Amino acid sequence: MGSLAIPLVLWGREPPTHNISCILLTKDVKTLVTASQDGQICVWDFDPPKLKMIPRVMLVGHSSAISCLAESSSSSSPVHTIVSAAQNGEFCVWDLRDGRCLEVVTSHYIHSNITTYQMLGSKEYRLFCIGNYPEIHIYDPASLQLLCTLCSRLNPDWIASIHVLRPSKRNDEVVLGVTQGGWVKVWTVSDKDVGRGEAIKEHESKKLRATNAKCLVCCAFNQRTVLIVTPKSWQVYDAGDFSQLAECGTRDGETAYSGGSFLSNEAVVVWGETGRGYVYKLPNKRSEGSRRGASCVVGTKEFHRKQSDDSSPILIGVCKPPTTNTLLVPPCWQYLMVPVQSGAEKLLVRGDCEGGVVLWRIRDFQPQELQKLLAATPVQPATTKITVHTSLKDEWAKIDPPPVGLLDHVAPVEGLCGGGGDSVAEGQRVCATLFLGTQGRVACGREDGSILLLPATEAIMLHLLHTEQSQHAVPQSMILRGHTRRVTCLLYPHGDAGGAPAAGAGPAGAGAVPTPRYPANQLVSGGADFAVIIWDLTTGAQLTRFVVQAGPVLQLMTTPSTCLLADEYAAMTPGSLEAAELTSTSHYQRINLLTHPASPEAAKKIAEFFGKVKDKAGEMEKKMKDKDKHDLIGRALEKASSAHGSSGGTAEPHDQHDDGARNIEVPCQTLQIGQLVLSVLHSWGLDPALDATCLSLLGLLRPRVPPAFGLVTKSEENVFSSRGHWEISSAVSTQHLVAVVALANTLQHRNAATLHPFRERSRRLHLVTAKNMSVSAEQDAAFRQDQSRIKQGWSTLTALHSVLLPDAVHRAGADAYKPPLLEVLARRWQSRCQEIRDAAQVLLQTELVRIGRTGRQRVIDEWFPHLPSLTETQHGAPANPAAPSAPTATATPMASNSQPINGTVNNSNSAANSTVVNSNSNNNSNAQNNSNNHSTERPQQTDAQHIVEDYHFDEDHLEGLTSSGGGEGSSGAHKHSQQGVAIVLLAVIGAYHGHHQEEGFSLGSPLAVKTSKALSHLLLSPPSPRLPLHTPLRRAAIDLIGRGFPVWEPYLDVAKVVLALLELCADTHQLAPSMKYGLPLVPEADACRTASQSLTHIAGARPGVLITSMAREVARYNTLQQNAQSLQLNLHLTTLYRAKTEILRLMEYLIQNHRASINQLMVEVMDIILHCVDTGHLRGGRGLNEVFPAVCSFSQVSHCPNTKRIATGSHNGTIAIYDLRNSKCQVISAHSGAVTAVAFSPDGKHLTSYSMVENKISFWQTSTGIFGLGSSQTKCTKSFSTVPVPDIVRLNPQRFPKLVWISNKTVVLMLSDGTEHRFNA
Asked: N or C: which end of the chain has fewer CB within 10 A?
């Protein structure tokens, strides 16, 4: 089912550790990003006028220390992204505004520095990366795809630092790099060179005295001088020939330099590992008393002269740290020059290992001030004051009320808490956590080696919500003691997905799928004492303990699902081994004989046998899964395992309370989770009346403290956000709104259920007693009134969060409301979870209405370029448009078998008058066209084949949803994922707003044409590994074709679309239990229901088009049916035969809701009905009113059971007489206007017809040859004129006159006013 994760963050009273390893201040000076050795990234909001930094988002995704950060988008881009690289090879792209992880890759390259640069001719940035490898790697910032490498011709070595610049009057870029050995290298590259993907060699190289360089920077003011900083000195070189212009060593008290940059063309700033920054003035004139001078300033006479002793750089400023404490780890720095109206703002930022952030504003020295400073002997450098100084710990202390922690109220017992009862006291910190999803508990491993187990939902509710329990109540918990040192990792095998590593900390296992092969009551822990322990969660006893003599246990994981466990293999009998194709009976008997004598030959053959068994274990597992498509065996095993696990003894809690309720009932736990989620997500304070209803009727609980929320993005990285709600980010708002609306709708439709325990028990009791008829009328009325109030409360809650929320938030004075992401809602348009699907559809429609026509036009302009370009043959149009008139038989691309989609079968020996086009011929013709027009057709075919690569289109994949990702530098997977979002989003706009001409979907517009072709392609394209048959994206196309059919109709092959939808509905009778009883729908049943709804939309929007198309296909079917034997066709496998039930449902829907359309196409409707019903019943004497009673409500239809004939009057004045005995139809011209009514006489000898247009009634008689031989002829025997019918009757089909035979010779014309006119035949 579609997943929707809503993380809640309980930070605790102590802030998370944040040992800053790299720092980044964005170019707009509004966001500061700090990365730590723990793999966390903290995003700070920076307000320069107020000089305030506030931590906003904590990004948790890396599993090792982060080595570098870089900004990967321009400040004008709608999406602000950064990239981060870790020391284990992880490479991530983050959206700073929403906190989403857009992309993540893991490689063998360890990056140490990333330089972002926009090359000439490219709309996107490029990432120039260096690290523990001898090349410079150039990556695409959106997809993290390696585009090109810059390598060395001579002396390859690790690159220490690089700088990218574009010299004036040149159309390419120059990359300067210095290696660890001191070699400076120069590359010349262009965007075209990067696009080729070939390795580029350096053009120049030179050896310098700059080993282990920390920084290389080219002066941005003149591009002629280069600064290289080494641990012991910094040097200035001429960029032309790399001759040294100046050099300066470390000062007293400074251990080593770590970087630097140019402040101007005559000043530099360098910083060291002690946390200080130094501002130096470069020599720019001849010193007094010296014969030779030196200058580092371009344009002076002394430029490029050799440096003399008395022309060294002069220290003119110092950036001192806030404290004199010695830092254990060197701090990280960044220098940024921001253009302002008065010139440039020069900022120096530092982050240290204690989590502190310091910012200096470095000012420019005026000439008089500089002259006065240099005149002093010795020169006394000026001190730059600290502009901003803060830390995560300082900001944490300002939070009021302080954040709560999961273990704040755990009962203090001996060995659990140190003294005061604080579970995270000194020496008792939590070092490993794991959520046991199937048990609803959380396991916390601590530094003293103990493991604490407590119910997660109950503990969270006690900390966050005002529950009915006492504020001093503590959750029941259990302590497992066995490790002598800290617990390093935890694993719950039953909830592990198979082979996934167990993280040392974090919500591992929160979203894992239960694995029946492992017991549900076992937990595995690893510690720093080299021990691994298996625990019984029911009793708290140690089942197994073993010591690994190799060091601390860092990671635990289960075996892959393809591997057989020892118990599983031992339980297999010879028959099961042979059935699984692991061995044969003869081989088994041979091995059985060889096992008796213990000979070397027997041991060898036994080993070979078990080797074969091991090799085929994976194939056996795969085949078992294929046979059990719905995982019925796995579910049964899971239930049995859960029942077995819950039937054991209970564990003794450490607080000595009765633990009879430890085995949590699943429904109660589910409602408790729902109560928690709705209580923390509800918008408290926006509607006081609704708040009172939520507390008194709906069972919601008011939060004690403002909750902190999170977001789960790519690869299940958790993005934990700081406090806030609708102003956090659009991604968080989207998830919360979908969750609230989905849960509220579910509870509203569940007989108005409530989360209040007492009311819910009363509701269930009343429903049980009502079945026994033991409830009085007063009690039942009171109950119904209460249920109505509850239902109204859920409806109001849904309306607030789906429609009224933006205005309510603005009225409440919130800073900024973050609207939901349209692209995420588009992904969930056909979510596998019905509740999430309905919520997403409501929210997307509401948001499109809220943004108005201007906002919708912006969405169209943003996403229209992502629509794929498809040719006619690619989106399902006929391959040969010149021959559409002949009865065609197009092979179905959607069917699972080889039968065609329009009711015919492909056969090489088909009749000459039939054009048979199968999928192979289409492929061959496409291949031939591609070979002839290689340059034009191939890119379009690629778009068609790879229109989507994301099979889980509806999941919580919040990554890859930015419009900037679809540019020229994006990878194929990212681009085609964008295409899927664009198709759904634009199709929704077209379906609900396309009828307005100003929306851009006018007749013939490129927007309507491309969108309709894309939808048709998704419906008609054959299943493939990239686009399977039953996927959310394909279901979304099926659904939107029906919703917006009036807009797409001019560009669709209606017959193909209708038959494709009928093919999906052909197996309705097999999938009925899944759809009828509200069970979780399998993909086949979901696609069947969606296709059925789409056909209903088409029938409601264009009933005439649907009827005409289906009647034409029925005529083709009947034509082939006459030649089925000669053509050797099996028509029972065709779509029109298998989908008869669905076709009859459509006809019944049209008869009930669109009678006017049926009146005009009554003959075509009768053709369709007679194709679908069992004519054997009609020939056997049953009446049409018994076989299909809906059509008998029309006076234009009459059935004679005696003569086995059906007469149908048409709108053009003809009458179609169907002879069911020989399956023939005779059409006679009866009237000059529409036929109003027809009726057979009781003996079937006469047929009466009446036309309200010409006011005439006619009698018809059918004659045949002797003994019924020869062709029958129907002739008019009498005609009578009738009184005119009032115009008001002509406009209402329900009041049309009717014909009723009262005898074999007399018929009565009954008018709507009760008047009767009798006529004799």
From this structure: N
